Each structure stands twice: as C-alpha cells, then as structure tokens.
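[stage:ingest] chain + small molecule (adenosine-5'-monophosphate-propyl ester)
[stage:ingest] validated
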Amino acid sequence: MNTIPFRIQTIEDYKNAYKASVDNPENFWDNIASNFIWKKKWSKTLEWEFISPQVKWFVGGELNITENCLDRHLEEKGNQVALIWEPNDPNEISLQYTYKELLSEVNKMANVLKGMGVQKGDRVCIYLPMIPELAFATLACARIGAIHSIVFAGFSSNAVADRINDAQCAFVLTSDGMNRGAKQIPVKSVVDEAMANCPTVQKVLVINRLNWNVHMDLHRDIWYHEAVNQVNDLCEATAMGSEDEMFILYTSGSTGKPKGVVHTCGGYMVYAGYTFANVFQYNPGDVFWCTADIGWVTGHSYILYGPLLQGATTVMFEGVPTFPDPGRFWQVIDKHSVNIFYTAPTAIRSLMASGVDHVLSYSLHSLKLLGSVGEPINEEAWHWYHTHIGKGKCPIVDTYWQTETGGVMISGMGGIHPQRPSYAGFPIPGIQLILVDADGNEIEGNGVEGNLCVKFPWPSILRTTYGDHERCRINYFATYKNLYFTGDGARREEDGMYRLLGRVDDVINVSGHRFGTAEIEDAINQCKKVIESAVVGYPHDIKGQGIYAYVILEHSENSNDQTRDEIIESVVEHIGKIAKPDKIQFVGGLPKTRSGKIMRRILRKVAEGEINSLGDTTTLLDPKVVDEIISSRL
Ligand code: PRX
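[stage:predict] done
[stage:export] tokens:
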C-alpha cells in the first residue's frame, strides 16, 4: 500500500520528478508542501539569492512541525507504535510509545519547559544520551517554538560551554549519567563544569537515567521526574513562521571554532519528510532503524523528524554495536522486526572485523533495505553488508548529505537506481548539482571530476550560521560565485551517477564525524609542552580516516609517552574522546612555504605512507624538514 502522495517508485517517476523539480522548482515544492498541515498557507514559495546569501521558502506560511509529526497521525495511527526505544543492556526492558503516547510525553515535556520559563525563540541546549527523553525534549522544543541546539553527549565540558555560549542558551537539558556498553559515564558533572563558564544559563533540567545522587544546584537545577508530576499532557502547538529558526546544530569547518548551522521550520519539515519517504522507499507499517545519535544531523532528520512526519515506526538505540557482543545490531533487528536499517560504514567495518559468526545466529529476514551514511562506503564493506546482512536481497542505499543540507542530497533512492558499490548515486529531485574547477568554471558533461556545488536552493539548505551570517557566506557561498559549495570533491560517471571523493578543505571525517584540522590543532596547542602542531587525516581501516598529528615540542626531551598522553588529554578536555589523535609524531619542524603556510599536502602524503610522491618541495622554507619527518614517521 502506498499512501504517501509524493513517493517515487520507478526510474520513470524519478526522471519525471527530477525534470519537474528543475523546470519549475516552485511548483514542484508547492505540490509537495501541500501534503503537510499548515496553520497558514504561504503566499510566496521562494525568494533567494546566493550572494548574501538569503533563502526563504514558503514565505508567509505558518506551521508547527510537531503537529505534522504527531497530531495529524492520531486519527489513523493513534495506537500505532511511533517510537521503539531499545536500551543499552539487552536485559533491560525496551519501551514503546504509540503516536498518542508520544504526543502525551512531548506535551508533558513542553509544559515542563514552559514552567521553567522557556519561550518561543529561546535557545535550549540539549546534552542528553540516547534515552526517550531526548526525543521528547527535541520535539517539545519544536512544539513551543524554542530553538533546540543538541550537543552530542560525547563532547567535553569545554565544547559544551562553547556551544552554549555561542547560542546564548538560557536553558540546558541533561541527565545524571549515561550507559555506554559496559560503562556508566557521568553527564551532569560535565554540564556542571561547563556552567562555571556559561553566564546565560538560568535553569538546568536533569533526567534521571541511572538513579545517581548527583549534585543539584538549588537555584538552577530541576529534576525532570519531579517537575513532570506537576503538569498535564495538553500543550497547543505554537504557530511558527516558515522561516522562523527551528534548530541550531554545531558542526566543524576548516576554521577553528565549530559553527552553528541554522535550519528553519517550513523548508526543513518539507525536505526531511520528502527525502525520508523516497530515499528509504518507506511504506506504511515498516519499522525503520537509524543507528546514529540524535546529537548528529542524521539523528535529527532520520530518527526523529523524517520518520515521524511520515507516520513511521522509528527505533532509537541507547547502546553501542559491540555490547554485549558484536551481534547486538543484528539481535535488535530480529527483536523489533526492523525492515529498513540505516547505519555508517565505520560501524559496518568494525562489525565486519569481528567476524561473520556474530551474524549467523540471527535471521535478519525482516530486512528489506539497507542504508549507509557519513562517508563513502568502500567496496569490501559494501559487499559484506550486502551479503551477510542483506542476504543478497536488500538494496543498499548510500546517502550523501551534510549537516548544512538538512536532508539527503545524493542517493540510490532505495534501490530504484542501479547500485554500484562506493557510488552515492543520483541527485534527489530538487537538487541541482554542478561540478566546478578551482576557478569556479563549470565542468560539463559526464566522466568528469570537480568540486561539488549546488546552484539552486532546496527547502532545507542552511539559512545562516548562528550569530554570524558573514561566516555562513564565507564558508559556503564565497568560494564560487552564486553557488553553494559543499567542500567535497566528486566524480560524475558516464551515466550521471556520482561518486564522492572526499573533502577538498581542511576537514577530516573520522568515523563519519567531521572535525576541522584547525580545531584539533587548537586543542593540541593548549598542552603547555607544545609549540606548534599540524593535523591531517590518513586512511584508517575502521574509522575511514584517522587523525595524524605532527607536533613540535618545547624541549625535545619531552618527546615521550607521557607527553603523548598529555596531548591526548588536552584534546579530550577541549573537544572530547571522539577527536583523540590516533598517531602523534614529534617533529623538529613543519614543512612551510616562505610565507609561513604549512604545506599539508606533504604531511598528508607522509601520513598515508606515500613518501615517493611528495611532489615539489623546492618552494619550502627548509626542505630538509621533510627528510626528518619521513625518517621518524609512524
Ligand atoms: O564529506 C562528506 C561526508 O560527510 C560530510 C558531512 O558531514 P556531516 O555534516 O557531519 O554529516 C554527516 C551525515 C550526513 C560531507 O561533506 N559524507 C556524508 N555522507 C557521505 C559522505 N561522503 C561520501 N558518501 C556519503 N554517503
């Protein structure tokens, strides 16, 4: 049964939709947007220019995304399960919320937030593990028009504080602690540390996950389980303008400080709903599981908003793929009869390395479609995924997109397109891709490579970077005139299929997570013994890219394991464990041009072990540095 009006089901459908989206984008998106519930119809579909930049979709319209995610499904699907929560420990009971129950939980959370003083437009930092309250809180913010800024619960207190301060959040949501495999990790104390540097925060709402007796500041901290007893479960959805800010999500770029990508209400809703239905070929009744954390954009769009907009059943998993053993994902798939499974190549590679025995005890017969996101999926991982998880019968849909794009940009559309391992596929209708050379000239035709840009807005393109529109312009719209630049290189094959070739800027992708090399260097340089550092990515069997740091120390006698530990500690303290360098090489100097610029190309080659293809080094200030770096490489 296909009750989703804009579902593409065949190649012909795709071609027609794509053509319509280019011939008359306004008309195309008007039709799609009409399938959602609006409190007030928009008066103009699109206003845009890519110079300032300024993009507005569905101008004058009013809506609330949670009404589209929850209320509108009540009549037909009130008793259908909306959210399945699977805990870290397989022996703990999993929880299920029907659409009716989820709305009730969201409304209660919304009323607690209102009771704390949260108002439309306020920024709320959510620093929570993958517990149901994270879903309630995110949707509750959207319900009352507060702007959520979710910070992945693996970030350090410094990183949380930076993000809270950048967005001037007055409210923070957190938990006592969290489960992570066999470990229990403090969460509230991370927030407490951050609070010392966050003057704008008035209230902190604390969820009880582990029954820990954490420190509570009498004037600031509130237990959720106490506050929720004081409220009812009715909360009207606030009318939001299409272009009102909906959420901020921090992401790394090539400069030091992460930037707050801003998405707005109308366009984000339309694109998240449209892509979810089509990319995953979702059919009513399917159980969908995206293994990302809601702290990343994948979790925003494809654990919460996309699936709920389509009345789907979505799975949220608290744990890790390897606990209690590397069969956990496959056990959860059987347990909840998951039909569509969406994960990252890094997870596939790590489970592949644990051996196929962990898969064999599970039937996996419910699976219909597999997805991949975050980095290119290499051929070996693709074949393992296809053979052992999909049993050769499930299409694999690779999905290329970014925090800034809000939803998938390139994909195989749930197997509608031919599949080719390591190729992301074709542009989603509405996405007008263009490849350019270094000077911004279009590279036309097929069988070509270049820098990947987009020449026309789609509804969920980022609108700004919070508090600093100029940064948005410089980062995405200034490199090539009139184009949005992704920062990625790509190849367009003879048949028009796209293959992503990796970042062309100073951003590295570690286990599908983005870090600016400058951001990691800043953290390393905070270590007192360090004079200077340079970070590059190198191919890593599991993580895709590993972090390779070249470090100049104050005194060479410091080049020992203790210093290495101190450097790692500094990164953990300033960013979090996820950005720990894999390799640290102590060097006497860095390869610099006469103008003082580090030649990362050379450092990358050395880290990759390609020391015979370093290219021209004669322009270096001191070419001898390179010999020393090569001789002591790790
Ligand atoms: O380099 C691309 C890579 O991840 C970057 C976006 O990272 P982030 O904003 O954290 O979002 C990750 C999940 C949407 C891109 O610029 N990337 C993401 N997906 C793919 C990919 N590279 C190749 N293939 C993909 N499927």
